[in-house]
Amino acid sequence: MSKDALYYLEKIMRFGSKNGVLSFVNLESEKNNQSAKYLKNDAEFFKDTTSFERLKYLNVGVINDHGIQSQYMKDFADKIKAYYKQKKEVKRELKDLQRDKEFWTKSSQHEVVVRVGWDINHKEVCFEIGNEQNHTLICDHSGSGKSNFLHVLIQNLAFYYAPNEAQLFLLDYKEGVEFNAYVADTALEHARLVSVASSISYGITFLKWLCDEMEKRADRFKQFNVKDLSDYRKHDEMPRLIVVVDEFQVLFSDNKSTKAVEGHLNTLLKGP
């Protein structure tokens, strides 16, 4: 047996039982003292043939290993793949993330926490922003669900936070495809801006307005001798402003406007 094989065998013997992996090993030689040591410490020895009588109560089968290319190994790998694929797929609906009793009950004073889905163990996953983390860039390949994530984020944020707690600014650079739903007859109450046909120049104008608004808030904080929105909320109301930009990279597609975009974004990222 190679050194690599012995190394992995030792790991299996030491930690396997804790994870439901049980092994039967025939140790014919103790030349490799280190391996024999781990086997003796972490295994129960069958010292004679009568000891194997204890195995007759186990529902086990014997399968000879013919190498990694054997049909058995392929079938085994396929079963593992199918199992984890099924575990990974979580088919639930948006309403499953919403608790009717909590409608418009959340406070944005310290942060915004929004339920956005489930992990592979079917535990709820939350999107958090506003405490230590104030900005988020969402990246992945086409068709991975980025836009769907944004819809879940927007709708659940509007469900749990009242308009006086959180206000939304939605800029759509995907040719108006994604955010059209929020300018229908039943407009989103939290939306102060929904731009479904955004131009780069319009985006720059909005970023400048946002920088100016940030400065106004900073001046307001100084008047009350507080450092941030969380402290200011102890004295007066002030909603959090949440900006969502779909296809954000389009803002950098015009070389003439890139410096202006970068300048405003750097100001926003640094804060007052």
UniProtKB/TrEMBL annotation:
It comes from the Bacteria. PROSITE patterns: FTSK (PS50901). Residues 73-107 form a coiled coil. Keywords: ATP-binding, Coiled coil, Nucleotide-binding. InterPro entries: FtsK/SpoIIIE/SftA, FtsK_dom, P-loop_NTPase. Residues 122-272 form the FtsK domain. ATP binds at residues 140-147. The keyword Coiled coil applies. One of its GO terms (molecular function) is ATP binding. This is FtsK/SpoIIIE family protein. It comes from Helicobacter pylori Hp P-13b.
